[in-house]
Amino acid sequence: MGKTENQQKKSTILKDAMVLVIITVIAGFSLGFVHELTAPIIEQRLLEKKTEAYKVVYAEAAEFGSDENLAALASEAATTVLTENGYTGIAIDDAYLALDSSGNTIGYVMSITTQNGYKGAITISLGYSLEGETKGVEVLVNNETAGLGALASESGFKNQFADKVVEKFEYTKSGAAADNQIDALSGATITTSAVVDAVNAGICFALSASAGN
C-alpha cells in the first residue's frame, strides 16, 4: 500500500528540515573558519592603523612603550576613574607611554572607544603630554552618518583639539571663543558630544595615570 498524503507531507517536511540543518551546520563551520582565518589579519591591520595614528597624534615621540601598570589602569578605567568622573559608555582600549629619543616618558598615547555615537561606537586615538597638552586626535573608527557625523574624521574638526592645554573640552554651536571650546559639527550634535567626551575621558585617564592613581 502506498504512502498516504499526510505521510508524504511529513516525509517532505523532514527532508527539508534535514537539508536546512545541513546547510546551517556547513554555513556555521564556514563562517567560523573564515573568522579564524581573517581575525589575526584584521587585528594586525588595526594594530598597524593604531600605530600610525599614534605617530600622528604624538609626532614628537621617538617611540611608544608598553607599561604593565598603565595597561592595568587602562583595563580598569571604565569601571573606576572614568565612571567616577561621569564618563559612561567609554573605554580605554589601550594606552602606551610616549618616549623621547633617550627613552624618557614625555606623555601618553591612547586608543579610546565611545559607544555614545549616533550610530554606536566611535574609536579615537589621543596623544597627551605630561605638561597637560593635547598633542592630537585621530579618528580610527567612525560609522556615523555620511556628510554629518562622518565629518568628525576630517582635519577641520580633529585639529581643533591639537596643541591645547586644557583639562576638559566643551563644544559650542555659536563659535569657539576659548581654548577649551570646540565648534560642533553642524547637524551632528550627538557625534560631536561623543567625540568630545571621548577626548575628555582620555585626558581624565592620562591625568589619573600621571598622578599614579
Please estimate the helix content: 40-55%
- Sketch the major β-sheet: 5 strands, antiparallel
Major sheet strand order: 1-2-3-4-5
Strand content: 15-25%
Rg over CA atoms, rounded to whole Å, is 24 Å
Structural class: alpha+beta
- Return the string of H and E elements: HEHHEEEEHEEH
The 3D shape can be described as elongated
Number of strands: 7
Total helices: the number is: 5
The poorly predicted ranges are: none
Calculate the mean pLDDT score and round it: 90
N-to-C CA distance: 84 Å
- The total number of structural domains is 1
Function: Part of a membrane-bound complex that couples electron transfer with translocation of ions across the membrane.
Cofactor: FMN
Organism: Anaerocolumna cellulosilytica
Enzyme class: translocase
Characterization of the model:
- The radius of gyration is 24 Å and the shape is elongated.
- It has a five-stranded antiparallel sheet, sandwiched between helices. It has a two-stranded parallel ribbon with strand order 6-7.
- It has helices at 5-57, 68-76, 81-84, 155-158, 189-210, and strands spanning 63-65, 90-99, 105-117, 120-129, 134-142, 170-172, 181-183.
- Helices cover 43% and strands 24% of the residues.
- The mean pLDDT is 90.
- It is an alpha+beta fold and 213 residues long.
- It has one domain.
- GO terms for molecular function: electron transfer activity; FMN binding.
- Part of a membrane-bound complex that couples electron transfer with translocation of ions across the membrane.
- Belongs to the RnfG family.
- It comes from Anaerocolumna cellulosilytica.
- The modification FMN phosphoryl threonine is found at residue 189.
